[in-house]
Amino acid sequence: MAAHVLASTEAPLTHLQRVLLTISRLWAWLFLALLILFFVATVPVFSGISFLSVRNSQNILVAIVPVLLLGLGQTFVIISAGIDLSVGWVMSLASVLSALALRDSFNAGVPLPLAVLLGLLAGVFGGGMVGLVNGLIIAKLKVPAFIVTLGSSFMVRGLALLWSENTTVVGLPDGVRAYGNDSLFYAIRGDHGGFYIFSPPALTGDMLRQMDRILSWPVVVTILTVLLSMFLLHRTQFGRYTYAIGGNIQAALRAGIPVDRHIIKIYTLSAAMAGLAGFLSTLQFTGGSASIGDPLLLSSIAGVIIGGVSLFGGAGTIIGTVIGALIIAVLTTGLVMLNVQAFWQFIVVGAVVIIAVLIDQSRDLIVGRFSGGSE
Amino acid sequence: MRAKTLLLAAVAAGALMAGISSAEAAKLKIGFLPGVVDPFYQVMQLGVEAAAKDLGYDVVTQVPPTWGVEAQTPLLNAMVARGDINYIITAPVDQDQMVAPLKAAVDAGIKVITVDTFLGDGDYANGKVTFPISYIGSDNEEGGRISADGLAKAIGGKGTVYINSTNPNVSSVSGREKGFKEEMAAKYPDIKVLGPDYNLDDLNKAQQQTAAVLQQHPDLAGVFGTNVFSAQGAGTAVANAGLTGKVQVVAYDATKAAMDLMSKGTVSLVLAQKPFDMGYMAVEFAAADAAGVTSLPKRVETGFAILNKDNASDPAFSRFVYQVPGQ
Known about the structure:
Chain A is mainly alpha-helical. Chain A is 70% helix and 4% strand. Chain A has 14 helices and three strands. In chain B, helix 6 (171-187) links the parallel strand 6 and strand 7 (191-198). The longest helix of chain B has 25 residues, at 2-26. In chain B, helix 2 packs parallel to helix 10, helix 5 packs across helix 6 and helix 7 crosses helix 8.
């Protein structure tokens, strides 16, 4: 929206306008930086511990994995002027499917790494199938995305509960824990310190407190997914089509973009990423759960909006979504470290979402008010 | 002269700081991470804080806003990331899925005591999960059996009864269901057991589910609510249907709401657990472990108080009602 106004502005922007606009564009970065500074300053005072530690940074990264993965897919969807309300329950379904596939194939004699791979495929393809159906109904039958994904989320929820037999899918092989919780690097502080790759040294007792686990496997997978999403959205035709459809669907049609097919692809991608999140949660918790993604849907949408993706479509970036998810995770962790009750995170995140949209809208105001109207 | 004063001041400050740090070292920091917001865990928190005060320890409490591994794990990880917590006292929200996150805490040098719910099969000596120091909680199967006996007596040993429960795969409520069903099957052949339905800790859902069962089974004689939410929701549904006194409700957990329903005749029996004992004892166990005690029992059962209309006003029993000052 802001871009349209900007384009139609004839008078050059004043210095003040330019500063305000820059702040409004970069506010999420500034906010994140201020938030971190705030916690760095307050946490040691009130709790006597350090906020800025390797361990805490890793903890924040682990915490954003599911919210970010759901948010990445959602970023494509919202940029195309859609919405996907099914991702939370698709994640749950994928968690159940991947746990079942992993467990049953392992019990049938498949070696563990291959069973984990089968679990991945079950989660991603199982999730992706839901997205394919969502996309088909939205694109071909012209039912609003809000309705389609709301409806499918109920159906997916039912399927997840049915297939998990209304309980946690357990009995996964013990080795699964390592896939979901081990790390790429291990660093040991202190005199006998060291840096290890892939596997930690054997430690016991208080020595364990000196070891930091850096980049757990789900975090590594998520970083790769972020890079892939950046490439896809910002460097390929897929990304250009996504912006074009969200910016002006009529113009996209006239330009010969295969709109229907592209919408189907976007919803499939979104659900497949939710499927990946479900698979990773199965590894992390060594079990599949039909309710695991439920509380994450709204956080993931909040992250996307805080990151500056416009609900009107056509605007937004992957890095914005990453910042949005980071803001939520830093808030949560920082408040816990300040020993503030966890409920406050809801109140603060809610306020930040509304402020984010207000700032987004203020761009029109900044340009409109100071340029004296350009129509 | 001035240099000398400065030096003296520095030495004094150094001595002071050394004094503080050695005092801090002896002081344990306890993390308390219950399952969800409810009166049961609030009373447990009182127990944790009372023990910590008596022993001069610090407590860091974080309460998950909702029941689930996705709500409990980030709080757990944030506690671990603090780096200053020695013991975590927690009620794992899933006996299997919380194994990996709590193992990660142990791998970071923190010791774990579970209260109310346990990990794996609950046998920390020879079972599949052995890393927690102890489990301190109710013998939930025994609680289920007591509830079955109480309900059977209240309905005259025959009829249809229904179990409303909260979540699958949570050691505490699963044990209650199991004990209840086994006791009914073994001792009361004329009683048919329906359910359990799972309300996922949602009061409204518990009420709806119970109302639906009342519709389907107009002859329903009794309901067993396996925790705060179940009992309250079931009791409300029974009262709304105008069946107070005709359908007997046994409530696990002595919340004020459950006591209120009992005084109105909707609930006939309330099984009080001892969350204060669980919280207090868990901190004492941490202290003992830190002092080098190696023979702590791996499993401690805190027992029950059975409340009914007759003894509810007796202070010896009413003290087990979950009371949080200021609420």
